[in-house]
């Protein structure tokens, strides 16, 4: 995993949500949660694994909606933040946090209905191996996102503390074929880069987001979108 030492630092975990999902970053948080919920609903009694769960943004949300969730992450500091969030929500009995490596998942085959990995695929050293591990422990569905090669993300990617691996649609399609996953749906979004939204107050970011969403509905702009949300099933 790229940037592993940086990611596990206590100060990074403490500031993670505020730096990425405050101000206009709230719009990113809302859209990502919407993408996950749309992909895996209904949630009641569904067994879900979230890989690289971080501070529990999705883990706690899914558990609060009735899923049985395990959140796995390599960072003890991130997991602690997730546990703190869970204390404020009624998720007793259907949420566990576990420290572990995404490349060697500590679960038997076909253990979960759904496996989710958001904000991680771009850091995977071995994307095919990572997908194979996800597929191994899932009996039904895998949901993940990628940052796109031909988007504005490529402009500032070099400045990020751990960089990102960017993918074209064809590259992801090849990975899905190699790992025998069936594409059910893919959505593209955010022509305006994430960094912009995080740097301005929501009152200014919101109208830009509305324009971004409108332009993003045009077929010609698909390849310019920063991120793609992939919903796949086990064949």
UniProtKB/TrEMBL annotation:
The UniProt record lists the keyword Plastid: no
Record InterPro entries: Methyltransf_11, SAM-dependent_MTases_sf
Keyword terms, alphabetized: Methyltransferase, Transferase
Domain of life: Archaea
Record flagged with keyword Iron: no
GO biological process: methylation
Name by which UniProt lists this protein: S-adenosylmethionine-dependent methyltransferase
Organism (species): Halostagnicola larsenii XH-48
């Amino acid at each position: 995993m790229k940037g592993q030492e940086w990611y596990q630092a206590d100060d990074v975990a403490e500031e993670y949500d505020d730096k990425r999902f405050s101000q206009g970053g709230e719009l990113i948080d809302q859209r990502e949660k919407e993408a996950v919920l749309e992909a895996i609903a209904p949630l009641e009694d569904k067994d879900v694994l979230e890989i690289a769960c971080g501070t529990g943004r999705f883990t706690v949300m899914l558990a609060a909606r009735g899923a049985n969730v395990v959140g796995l992450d390599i960072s003890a500091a991130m997991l602690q933040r997730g546990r703190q969030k869970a204390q404020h929500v009624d998720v007793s009995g259907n949420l566990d946090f576990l420290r572990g490596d995404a490349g060697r998942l500590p679960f038997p085959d076909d253990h979960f209905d759904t496996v989710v990995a958001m904000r991680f695929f771009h850091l995977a050293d071995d994307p095919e191996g990572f997908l194979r591990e996800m597929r191994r422990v899932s009996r039904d569905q895998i949901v993940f996102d990628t940052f796109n090669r031909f988007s504005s993300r490529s402009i500032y990617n070099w400045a990020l503390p751990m960089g990102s691996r960017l993918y074209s649609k064809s590259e992801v399609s090849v990975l899905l074929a190699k790992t025998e996953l069936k594409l059910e749906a893919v959505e593209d979004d955010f022509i305006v880069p994430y960094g912009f939204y995080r740097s301005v107050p929501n009152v200014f970011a919101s109208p830009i987001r509305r324009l971004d969403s409108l332009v993003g509905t045009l077929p010609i702009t698909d390849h310019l979108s920063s991120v793609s949300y992939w919903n796949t099933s086990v064949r």
